[in-house]
What does this fold into?
Amino acid sequence: MSTSGTTEQRIARQVIDRALQDRGFARQLLGDPVAAFKQAGLSIPADHEAEFNENFPRIAPDFVATLNDPGRPRPDSMESSFGLGCTACMVAAEVVAAAIAAVGTAGLAELTEGSTVVVSVADFLGIDTADALAFVKGLGKDIVDGVGEIAKALCKKLGAC
It folds into this structure.
């Protein structure tokens, strides 16, 4: 398992790998993804928890299908068969995307390089805050389309998916 990426991505990788090895944890993850990720240390905004739980099967469909089918062969790691980079990115990106969505299109003009959401995006993408600010301000349509589209844009920019 790779240890590169943001804290959020590393936590997502740990949760994914644990679920592949521990059927009880896999059931917990499928039943309440927010609780499983919070237990592992991923901070999910309270006002985004229901959406995160609802979106989890869409975020990682192949992974969820494997967990739902106990007879399906399980790889030792998601790395080879599902593209762990993309799965971990989408899970972690949902958290960052929720913060961006909370700003809304109207709030984009108020953002600065020091804004919390801009700093979070810079950390997530591994870019400087000036580039992060430009990226976030360019997300207008994605913000209107919702958290899922923002997460896709983040992972595309990162090159994980």
The two ends are 17 Å apart (CA to CA). Residues 7-158 form one domain. Residues 18 and 25 are 7 Å apart (CA to CA).
